[in-house]
């Protein structure tokens, strides 16, 4: 499969019969295979998500967590799937006193949710069996894929951490050196694990022999996870999206514990200005963008909200247009007289020819997660214990047994009228919302899809650091921002740091897919009409399921 891929993955693709864009070309091919076999967008998303865990192991896998936005055409419904992982019941503040324990090693790991989430949405909304959907990922793990220049660079970059766990044995050549670009990388242990899941089902991971193996590995290495943690199965929760209007669009994005609120606030504030005011390649537009990104990030930090404990929050002020107007007035004042003032994820977007849409973001939290691989199962454990609050006991995401970590994801579906128009998302921790924002502003301004995704990008932190791809923008812009009190951090062209937007959009009767050139992704769609797999006749009721009309 990998040997047939062109050396430069296709970044822009057009098809009338479905479309998928992911961060790794082999995963795109996995999703394309399933679309071509008659699978719907959910089938393709699950196949690609499992494949990403194989060919982009530094970013996601069976040991991580998965979030997504889904739109189903029949019945017409749009909802978020909260696939948060869970803190083990034995995890307490006293048992992870040092930051290093929360970042690397067995104690850094929450109960993985990705298998449960992918199994759930496939069973409820897919049209193909798990065994078929897993075929591309199993084949990819068995036969291997070619290491990319980016993956080699990451393996070299993380050199100081390989000794913190056993991951070097699995991801470095002979356990010692980074692979060379273009070398084949195979994962037979992971292939065997995926084959077992295909045969026995997802429950095997949480309640079968596989669960016993995970618990034994954790007990042997002083980790927290035990059989009872796994047996609870971190089933996802379907939630109502957060939304706003932007021009003629209806934007529906991921609610807490994700960061869709941040994107909504940014769009609401931007809406208070004239379109000509927010061109990011002009002095005033760049300054406005920095102020908006910074303020929305600040508000998210000031107003944490854990959806399972809604009474902790008195209102949803940062989502309202009235609040956006107030912030816009404050920003206008600062535009006139201004004084001084980490994570790794993957994303994919899919649309099928039936009108179903998926925007899916999943992660093992930091690059290579906890740097620990289960020796007999071949998957990388996450390090989501680093995403809890450890100081403020009143904080909604303060570590507690079975609590969920704070997330920065913002998978998003945009509608024109009642029809899905764009599926979009990005990795990048706090840069996710700002990356998606800039692409949407460019699309709204009339830029072509690939131009909008490829364009130079910026990000502003709460502390006033502006990260920008300096060589790709006007050379007077960084100095202009310095005079306004910002600290400038110059990034390389098409920086890994600046997110990686995967977007699918409908253009008339065609679907266009764009994979961000900042990483290894590709976009592809079937070239001939495909016949849909037989639809499920009877879908079992799901406790707590609600219909969320667009």
Question: Could you please describe the fold and organization of this structure?
Answer:
This protein is α+β, with helices and mostly antiparallel strands. The protein folds into two domains: 25-238 and 355-387, no CATH class; 243-344 and 410-524, Glutamine Phosphoribosylpyrophosphate, subunit 1, domain 1. Helix content is 33%, strand content 17%. It is built from 18 helices and 19 strands. Strands 1-18-17-13-12-9-8 form a seven-stranded antiparallel beta sheet. Strands 7-4-3-11-10-2-19 form a seven-stranded antiparallel beta sheet, with helices on one face. Helix 2 runs parallel beside helix 6 (135-143). The longest helix has 20 residues, at 283-302.
- Amount of beta strand: 15-25%
Number of domains: 2
Radius of gyration: 22 Å
Overall shape: globular
Short description:
33% of the residues lie in helices and 17% in strands. It has 550 residues and is of the alpha+beta class.
Which tags fit this structure?
Glutamine Phosphoribosylpyrophosphate, subunit 1, domain 1, alpha+beta, disordered N terminus, globular, disordered C terminus, seven-stranded antiparallel sheet, 550 residues
Topology:
Elements (H helix, E strand, L loop, with lengths): L11 E4 L2 E5 L2 H12 L4 H15 L9 E8 L4 E6 L16 H5 L10 H12 L4 H4 L1 H9 L1 E2 L2 H9 L9 H5 L12 E2 L2 H13 L2 H5 L1 H12 L6 H5 L5 E3 L2 E5 L2 E5 L6 H11 L12 H20 L18 H16 L8 E8 L4 E7 L48 E5 L2 E7 L5 H14 L4 H6 L3 E3 L4 E5 L7 H7 L3 E5 L10 E6 L2 E6 L6 E3 L26
Parallel strand pairs: 15-16
Antiparallel strand pairs: 1-18, 2-10, 2-19, 3-4, 3-11, 4-7, 5-6, 8-9, 9-12, 10-11, 12-13, 13-17, 14-15, 17-18
């Amino acid at each position: 499969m990998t040997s047939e891929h062109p050396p430069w993955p296709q970044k822009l693709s057009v098809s009338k019969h479905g479309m998928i864009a992911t961060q790794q070309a082999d995963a795109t091919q996995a999703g394309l295979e399933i679309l071509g076999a008659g699978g719907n967008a959910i089938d393709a998303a699950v196949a690609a998500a499992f494949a990403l865990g194989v060919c982009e192991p530094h970013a996601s896998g069976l040991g991580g967590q998965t979030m997504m936005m889904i739109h189903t055409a029949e019945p017409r419904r749009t909802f978020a799937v909260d696939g948060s992982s869970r803190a083990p019941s034995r995890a307490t503040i006293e048992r992870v006193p040092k930051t290093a324990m929360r970042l690397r090693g067995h104690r850094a790991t929450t109960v993985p949710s990705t298998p449960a989430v992918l199994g759930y949405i496939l069973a409820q909304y897919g049209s193909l069996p798990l065994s078929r959907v897993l075929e591309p990922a199993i084949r990819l793990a068995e036969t291997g894929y070619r290491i990319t220049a980016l993956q080699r660079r990451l393996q070299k970059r993380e050199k100081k951490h390989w000794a913190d766990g056993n991951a070097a044995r699995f991801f470095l050549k002979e356990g010692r050196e980074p692979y060379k670009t273009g070398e084949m990388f195979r994962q037979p242990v992971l292939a065997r694990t995926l084959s077992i899941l295909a045969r026995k089902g997802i429950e095997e991971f949480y309640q079968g022999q596989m669960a016993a193996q995970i618990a034994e590995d954790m007990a042997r290495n002083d980790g927290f996870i035990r059989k009872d943690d796994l047996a609870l199965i971190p089933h996802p929760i379907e939630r109502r999206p957060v939304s706003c209007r932007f021009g003629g669009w209806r934007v529906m994005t991921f609610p807490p514990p994700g960061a869709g609120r941040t994107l909504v606030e940014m769009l609401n504030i931007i809406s208070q200005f004239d379109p000509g005011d927010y061109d990011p390649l002009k002095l005033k537009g760049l300054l406005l963008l920095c102020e908006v990104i910074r303020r929305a990030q600040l508000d998210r930090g000031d107003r944490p909200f854990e959806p399972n404990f809604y009474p902790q929050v008195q209102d949803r002020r940062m989502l309202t247009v009235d609040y956006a107007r107030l912030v816009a007035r404050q920003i206008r004042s600062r535009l006139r007289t201004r004084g001084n003032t980490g994570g790794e994820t993957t994303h994919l977007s899919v649309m099928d020819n039936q009108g179903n849409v998926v925007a899916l973001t999943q992660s093992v939290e930091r690059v290579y997660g906890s740097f620990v691989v289960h020796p007999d199962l071949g998957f990388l454990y996450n390090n989501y214990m680093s995403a809890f609050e450890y100081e403020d006991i009143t904080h909604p995401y303060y570590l507690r047994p079975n609590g969920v970590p704070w997330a920065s994801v913002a998978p998003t579906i945009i509608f024109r009228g009642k029809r899905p128009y764009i599926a979009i998302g990005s990795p990048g921790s706090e840069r996710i919302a700002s990356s998606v924002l800039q692409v949407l502003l460019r699309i709204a301004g009339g830029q072509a899809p690939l131009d909008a995704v490829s364009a130079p990008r910026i990000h502003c932190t709460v502390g006033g650091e502006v990260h920008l791809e300096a060589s790709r923008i006007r050379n007077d812009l960084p100095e202009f921002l310095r005079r306004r009190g910002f600290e400038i951090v110059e990034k390389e062209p098409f920086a890994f740091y600046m997110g990686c937007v995967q977007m699918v959009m409908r253009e008339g009767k065609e679907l266009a897919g764009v994979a961000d050139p900042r990483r290894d992704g590709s976009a592809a769609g079937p070239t001939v009409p495909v016949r849909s797999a037989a639809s499920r006749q009877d879908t079992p009721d799901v406790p707590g399921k609600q219909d969320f009309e667009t």
